[in-house]
Design brief:
It is a single chain. The protein is an alpha/beta fold. Helices cover about 40% and strands about 15% of the residues. The protein is built from 16 helices and 15 strands. The N and C termini lie far apart (about 70 Å). The protein binds pyridoxal-5'-phosphate. Pyridoxal-5'-phosphate binds next to helix 8.
Length: about 500
């Protein structure tokens, strides 16, 4: 008979006020001893009456613990009484339940498997607080959002929901929202589509991930602008694609001829209406050439139209999607900038020829919900609040950008070029080589300011040095003070 009194911690077992009842503590200690091999297979456990006496526990506690271990297969009844069962592989046994503190776990400690190789290097640690700091790119004017109207529409949407709507919702989104999006993008962005081609997603990050999985196979190449949107890069890497950085010029994506031959793409990610982050706008001729070359290469173009609603110098160029019939273009839109990022709603417009097959695949890949948010957003668009909000924000962002330029021209002491600004929510300011952008951004962060280093937008090509400065979520009257703080923070960082 195995002597358990040395294996089991009596003080722990008898302690009063422990979070677990005694029978559960005994069960846990025995289970761990079995799993880590201190109680090997075939060991006979003492009779319940004997163990209860030795440990000073009620007999019922021991009986319950043995019964539980028996039910889970750790012990079994035999002619010798209760004996430890043979487990196929102790290390593989899954620990269940709550462990009792001070139970030794050595021997059980085979480390869990690591992350997949594809995402080993992913390590974004940005906090929600940092997103709210002045100069964070990509954040719209949050306190200018018409929350009261939104709350009313959301409440109305919940009020009108029948219980049926609480079930799984269509993977491609609510019909009324798809309709509202189709109407909007046709009028505002020159997108040529019917409602069937619109698929609602959880935002562009979700769209990118779905495209990377649905339109390319593992090992195929995704061309990504360099510098470019990190979200596109990680979506492609996570789907097992090879990312190829593609250089930019002042007209946007500029793939060298040889690249088409040597590293032909399956996916081409681009931001033609407002290159992210440099801000160039791809002219019509370049767009048409890119479509033609993609067609010849059998590649898909992912057209990310993330913030072209905020065009500051005249109407935006129409989307690539509608330029040519049967263009292999997936148009990606988001409500993160035009509404607010936490809404997590975006959409894709896919070619008619793909729509049916893709919708079937998404039925397997996606479980979609949030009917009230989708219904409220459809109403927000249909009742004209969306266009009104965009109009107001366009003016506001133009003012904020002008205030930022003014403040930079007044206080910025280093040589540098301001890039972008035709559109959107940010500017890029190049830095001289003796001010590494990562150091400048870190010094700024310590003072509660969060411009992003341009080098962080590298997708694998030559290094870059500058700051990406968001202005949309910062009132114009604060711009001067904040720029002065930024200059002071960087100067102090350099002096160290
Ligand atoms: C280039 C680009 N595309 C898309 C998005 C929006 O992504 P999401 O819709 O996932 O919020 C952003 C946000 O910062 C962006 O910078």
């Amino acid at each position: 008979m195995t002597d358990l009194t040395l294996l089991l911690d009596r003080r722990l077992l008898r302690a009063k006020g422990h979070a677990l009842p005694r029978q559960r503590r005994l069960y846990e200690l025995l289970r761990q001893a079995i799993l880590d091999g201190r109680l090997p297979a075939g060991s006979a456990l003492p009779a319940s009456r004997v163990l209860a006496h030795e440990l000073g526990l009620a007999r019922n506690s021991v009986i319950h613990a043995y019964e539980q271990l028996g039910a889970e297969g750790y012990v079994q009844a035999s002619r010798q009484g209760t004996v430890v069962a043979a487990l196929p592989d102790r290390r593989a046994a899954v620990a269940t339940g709550q462990a009792v503190s001070s139970v030794p776990t050595a021997g059980l400690a085979a480390p869990p498997p690591a992350l997949s190789d594809r995402i080993q290097a992913f390590n974004r640690r940005r906090t929600a607080e940092q997103d709210l700091m002045p100069f964070m790119p990509g954040i719209p004017a949050l306190d200018e959002f018409p929350l009261r109207t939104w709350r009313r529409l959301l409440n109305a949407a919940w009020r009108d929901q029948s219980p049926d709507l609480l079930s799984y919702r269509p993977a491609v989104g609510e019909l009324e929202l798809r309709q509202a999006i189709a109407t909007y993008v046709r009028a505002a962005r020159g997108v040529v589509c019917t409602l069937d081609q619109v698929i609602v997603t959880d935002g562009t990050q979700d769209s990118l991930s779905l495209c990377a999985h649905a339109l390319a196979d593992v090992g195929q190449r995704a061309w990504i602008e360099h510098p470019g949107y990190g979200g596109a890069r990680v979506a492609c890497l996570a789907a097992g694609l090879k990312v190829v950085p593609v250089p930019m010029d002042e007209q946007g994506l500029a793939p060298p001829k040889a690249l088409w031959r040597r590293q032909p793409p399956r996916l081409i990610y681009t931001t033609p209406s407002h290159q992210y982050p440099l801000g160039s706008v791809m002219p019509l001729a370049r767009r048409l050439a890119l479509i033609e070359q993609a067609q010849a290469a059998g590649a898909w173009i992912l057209e990310d139209d993330y913030d072209s609603e905020f065009r500051h110098d005249g109407p935006p160029l129409a989307a690539m999607q509608g330029l040519v019939p049967h263009a292999p273009v997936i148009y990606l839109g988001t409500f993160s900038k035009s509404m607010f990022p936490a809404l997590r709603l975006g959409f894709m417009v896919v070619p008619a020829s793909l729509s049916d097959r893709l919708q079937g695949a998404l039925g397997d890949l996606v479980r979609r919900g949030l009917p009230a948010e989708q219904t409220a957003l459809a109403a927000f668009i249909n009742e004209g609040h969306f266009t009104k909000h965009l109009r107001k924000m366009r003016q506001l962002y133009a003012q904020r950008q002008a205030a930022l330029r003014e403040a930079l021209s007044r206080h910025w002491p280093w040589p540098g070029e301001v890039l972008g600004g035709a559109c959107g929510l940010h500017l890029v300011l190049t830095l001289p080589p003796d001010i590494p952008d990562a150091d400048a951004a870190q010094a700024a962060m310590k003072k509660g300011l969060s411009p992003r280093p341009l080098s962080a937008y590298g997708t694998g090509g030559p290094p870059l040095n500058g700051l990406v400065i968001g202005y949309a979520n910062l009132p114009a009257e604060q711009m001067d003070t904040r720029v002065k703080q930024l200059v002071r923070a960087i100067s102090a960082g350099l002096a160290r």
